[in-house]
From TrEMBL:
Pfam families in alphabetical order: DUF2470
Protein name: DUF2470 domain-containing protein
Highest taxon of source: Bacteria
Domain called DUF2470: residue spans: 142-212
InterPro entries: DUF2470
Amino acid sequence: MSAASCPEPTPAERARSVLAAADSLTVTTHGHRVELIGLHTVDAAARLLLNNPPDGHLAAELAMAPRGDLTALVEYTDVAPVAVRERVRARLTLGGPLTVLGPKALVFRPARAVLTENGRTAVIGLDELAHSSPDPLATHEAEMLARLDAAHADTVAPLARLLPAKQQLGACEVRPLRLDRHGLVLRSQTPDSHHDTRLPFATAATHPGDAVRQIHILLARATARPRRRRLPTRS
């Protein structure tokens, strides 16, 4: 299957996956910039429910706001869960109003979203964001990639045989970078560059167990191919 025909998540789906998996974010208003860790949830309409941070700066600023709301930017950084060069996989920025929801909670309603990844920037409409769903593997991806990487000799090294010949022969290291219902992305690294290649699943995975089965299918394909050269194992 050519790279152009490999199915992959849409920008809106990627954005929803970042929202679903992230446990930290940054909120910026006119007066403050606050880092929140483990203090937010996302509802089905992509609204963010924020527990009032302990320092109370946002709530105090909202109390002084003339209309009872603040224009805010909410930023997420999607970082690869394994050690690769340039670990930031994507950045998601949401803009919209922040208001008080209750005595201990705030709500942020995104009015616009911008996703930057792979050197490309996509502006995502609010309706598209609200009607998209996170990938079914989004909240499991980090753990699954870490397990793949830990079993490098038995998983990643054989899967690397499915990479194009140029990426195989030039690579000094191959690591798992991304996993979603459509497939697995491997990053082949040379001393001064890297290249990402998607290995598509035979059918889209609907849950983590299904993804494991699809990876086994890829492994069966990979082990049936001749070995070009032995790729270095993970240190």
